Amino acid sequence: MTKTIFNVKKLRADFPNLGVRIHGKPLVYLDNAATTFKPQAVIDAVTEHYASGTSNVHRGVHTLSQQATNAFERSRDKIRDFIRAEKSCEIIFTRGATEAINLVADSYGGAFLNKGDEIIISEMEHHSNIVPWQILCASKECVLKVAPFNDQGELIYEEFEKLLSPRTKLVAMVYVSNSLGTVNPVKDVIDAAHKKGAVILIDGAQTVSHLAVDVKALDCDFFAFSGHKVFGPSGIGVLYGKEKLLNRMPPYQCGGDMIASVTFEKTAYTVLPYKFEAGTPNVAGVIGLGAAMDYVRSVGLDNIAEYEHELLAYGTKALSSIDGLRLIGTAEHKASILSFVLPNIHPHDLGTLVDEEGIAIRTGHHCTQPVMKHFGVPATSRASLTFYNTKEEIDKLVKAILKAKEIFK
Ligand code: PLP
């Protein structure tokens, strides 16, 4: 019997995708850091929009358009509450965390960073929190500095502090690493960045499904996340930004919906958040994300965090018992992500073999090639767990790994 603080079996019934069979076997889905399954409530919200509520938003006086606009803006309010932002106008809809980070690099970076200014990131960033800053540095002649992590995969905070200087204008850091599971001390990082007068962006792509987030208490300037990693639809994400900063920033993309008035001589931009939402948005995605917020709140992030902690401890022990298996990422503060390598079996081979047992894990560099370089491996296998996973599923993974080892002996 799995000891749990809530009824996992009952919750699993909310996710139809968990019921599929792969190669004739019940699916064991351990790839939640790549994307999460959607509860029926989210599927219903999206279906309902397309089945009986389809309309564009913000543009129509007809009833359907007003209903869609209301549902769309209600979702914005739910997201505001979910991450405890002060105002709904601080919630900007994007395609995902990637676009949210690009928006800040392009708009804030383009307007306020100058030659010689410094940007600090960490060695464990996802490529989406590296490349936009590299491009910005190349175009504005800024300097990109990288804070290292230790062999447990923990940010070396003192080294980060040493990188801060009067020229530091921006810090961009991941809250929870997707390839290591490390939970970074972001509150300390934020406070230290602010002491130098720098703004700070937190990449929360892997955070919002694991930990309760309070952007006001954190006092971060920007916070980015993706809907599909928090049980919502894909193609929708969020940039939170402090109102006073967003107001100062120029638009990122231009077109319909982001203007107050247009003549051939001059365009005046509209107010937040619409200034950053040019064109027809992903209406169904936004409505689905609102439903995901409701769903996660109903399960309770504190319950989720506690249960995942239990799963992580169980999984760490179980995987560590496999002869030769090396865990990559053993930070003291971790989310439920288990990356590992095995001698003599390439992760892709392992991924293929466990797939034959119906088990989905991710193999590769996880869009964190510098992390792979640090550990001297080309790739890892990664099991990423969420609240609908069970200890029995971890046991199945261990059994499948042992079987793969036999084949490669
Ligand atoms: N940041 C981290 C830590 C991630 O894990 C990911 C996706 O894996 C991203 C950013 C990018 O998210 P998306 O591809 O949804 O934009």
Structural write-up:
With 409 residues, this protein is α/β, with parallel strands linked by helices. The chain has 2 domains: 8-30 and 300-408, Aspartate Aminotransferase, domain 1, CATH 3.90.1150.10; 43-297, Aspartate Aminotransferase, domain 2 (3-Layer(aba) Sandwich). The protein has helices at 8-12, 40-52, 63-82, 97-112, 131-140, 157-163, 186-195, 215-218, 243-248, 283-299, 301-320, 347-355, 369-375, 391-408; strands at residues 21-22, 25-26, 28-29, 91-94, 118-122, 143-147, 168-174, 199-203, 222-226, 237-241, 259-262, 267-269, 326-328, 337-341, 359-360, 362-364, 380-384. Strands 4-10-9-8-7-5-6 form a 7-stranded mixed β-sheet, sandwiched between helices. Strand 7, helix 7 (186-195) and strand 8 form a beta-alpha-beta unit. Helix 2 runs antiparallel to helix 10 and helix 3 crosses helix 10. The protein is globular and about 75 Å long. The relative contact order is 0.17. The model has no long low-confidence stretch (mean pLDDT 97). The structure holds pyridoxal-5'-phosphate.
Indicate the proportion of strand residues. Answer: 15-25%
**Can you identify the CATH superfamily of the largest domain?**
Type I PLP-dependent aspartate aminotransferase-like (Major domain)
The secondary structure category is alpha/beta
Low-confidence sequence ranges: none
Give the overall shape, derived from the CA principal axes: globular
Task: Report how far the terminal alpha carbons are from each other.
Answer: 33 Å
CATH class of the largest domain reads Alpha Beta
CATH topology of the largest domain: Aspartate Aminotransferase, domain 2
CATH architecture of the largest domain: 3-Layer(aba) Sandwich
* Major beta sheet, strand line-up: 4-10-9-8-7-5-6
Tally of alpha and pi helices: 14
Bound molecule kinds, no repeats: pyridoxal-5'-phosphate
Mean pLDDT: 97
CA-atom Rg in angstroms: 22 Å
By DSSP, the count of extended strands is 17
Please outline the major beta sheet. Answer: 7 strands, mixed
User: From the structure provided, what is the oligomeric state, counting identical versus distinct chains?
Assistant: single chain
